Each structure stands twice: as structure tokens, then as C-alpha cells.
Amino acid sequence: MVPRLDRPMTTMNAAQDPRPILADISVIIPTVGRTILQQSLEHIISGSAWPRSIIVVDQGQKEEISRWVEQLRELQIDARYLPSGERGKSAALNRGIAEVETPFLAVIDDDCFADPEWLGTAHRHLASHPGAIITGPALPTGTEPSVAALTSATATISRRPGLFIDPFCGSNMAVATASVRKIGPFDEAPCLHAAAEDLDWSYRALKRGIPIIYAPDVIVQHFGWRDASQRRERYQAYARSHGCFYGKHLRRWDWRIGLRVMIHHARALRTLIKGTLTRDKNQVDMARAYLAGLAPGILVGMTQRRVGED
User: Fold this and answer.
1) Does pTM top 0.85 for this prediction?
2) Of 256, 246, 220, 260, which Cα lies nearest the Cα of 303?
3) Cα Rg for the chain, rounded, in angstroms?
4) Mind giving me the DSSP string for 89-100?
5) Sign (positive/negative) of CA torsion 11, 13, 14, 19?
6) Reduced to 3 DSSP states, what percent helix, strand and coil does the chain have, rounded to the nearest 5?
7) Which of 71, 99, 83 shows the shortest CA–CA distance to 32?
8) What would the pLDDT profile of 170-229 be if each residue is shown by its tens digit?
9) Of 275, 277, 242, which is closest to residue 164 (Cα–Cα)?
10) 4 domain-assigned
11) Same domain assignment for residues 190 and 252
12) Which of 224, 259, 290 is the last residue of a domain?
């Protein structure tokens, strides 16, 4: 049974026995203040092991989230609440990473639910491959389709960027803090905010020789809560964001990205045809968003430099 926050602490303590502490890893959760974060936290504390620290970066600056973090502290968890007036997941992650004092860190999104063995399994993979980034599936759950599900059951190791999107889930990852410093901060360019900040960061990691291990047993569930209209808007934002990522690296004459752009357009067209034939409205909406939104995003990425960028 997953315990509930915002119950009297006597009830919480009765329902939640302390777990073994993995003293060398912290968990970062970026949030814009969505109430679903409550369930995400509850899944973490119901897991088989607890991290040394849980760092919640709240760009919504919600009082109730501060209260949930305080309840974690009453369970003797080193939980930190970081309110932030910044916007974008990149800024939240950079803020959280700056607070990490452990050799390893893990990241999970506020609308993802950790499997009971999630942290312990990721930690074991890190122990075997301390120089790699560990990632895993984000399985769809909830009453609506998930806009960012990753369901592959095949383990892979990527050592260099490929021609397709690299197998990486930014809402489910663990990595050595030293590797994060080597890769550099997440790019806070506004046009990357919707989705491509993770894509850009993992791409830079591979270019720096840091492998990405996709481990199917490191599992989170991605809760589908958006209705059809909200999903269409999200797909459009994803397309512009991915286009911005492509434009950023095309500006640097990265030949792989040129091939990726052509492949991405071809796959979006294939998805549109398939979705039309099977009457899958969600696939059609996604494909249309990418066919219409990639090019404008690429233009933005090619023309907008960050202050101080090389």
C-alpha cells in the first residue's frame, strides 16, 4: 500500500517503516506545483530503499508542497524544498543539482511514479557502471494516453550519438554527480523548455564520451492526465522544442543532426499515415504537430544564441 501524505504523522509512521538509506545518492524532483507530485513522493517513500536526500524544486511555489516536504523530514528523510521563480525544467534541474552533496543523483518528474525497486535498481546499475548515465522506461498509466511514454524492454548501451533519438528518458535517470559536472548544466534556452532540454543534455553527454545505459528494470510509470486538447498543445510544444534542439546543433555544423531532421520528418509522415489508416486520433495529432512544428523550431534554434554561448 502506498502511504498518503497530509495524514496525521502518527498514521504515516504506523504505515511507513523506515527503509534502508542509500547514503551516496540524492533524488531531484522538478515541479511546477502540480498536485500529482503528492503521489510521486508517496511512491518514493514506499520504495524498498530511500535516498540520502530528496530535493524538490518547486517553480509553482505552492505552500502545500512545502508542507509535504516537511512531512518527509518528520520521517527522518533529508528532504529539501527549494521554491523558485524561474521557469523551465532545465533551470529547476540546475538549481537542484547545485544542492546535491552525494556522489550520485537520480531524477524523476512530478507526474511519474517510481516502481518500489526503482531507486535500488538504479543504484545497483550505477555501482556496476559509475561512469555511465542510467535510464529506463516510463510506462504509461492513468486514464488518458501518456504524451511521453517509453516502453522498450530491450537493454541497450549507447556510446555515441546515433541517427535516431537516443534511448534516454529524462524523467527516469541516475548518474554520477561528477559526470554531470563534465557534461555541463542543462541548457536553459526558453525554446528548449517543453521537452528537448533532456534530449540536448543526453546528446552532449554522448558527444563527451559518457555512455547511456537503458535498463528496462529501472521503471517508473508516467501518468497520463492530459485530455485530447491538452495533448495536442503539448505535442506542438514538443515539436517546436525538438526543432530548437536540431537548430542549435545545425548552427554548429553537426552533420548527424541534418540526417536526424530528415529521418524525423519521414517518421512523422509514416505515423500520420498509420494513424489515419487505424483511426488513431492521438497518433494523427502527434504527427501533424511534428510535421508543422519542427521547421519553425529549427529556425529559432539556428538564429537564437544564448548569452555567452560559444
Assistant:
1) yes
2) 246
3) 19
4) HHHHHHHHHTT-
5) positive
6) 45, 20, 35
7) 83
8) 899 999 999 999 999 999 988 888 778 999 999 999 999 999 999 999 999 998 777 778
9) 242
10) no
11) no
12) 224
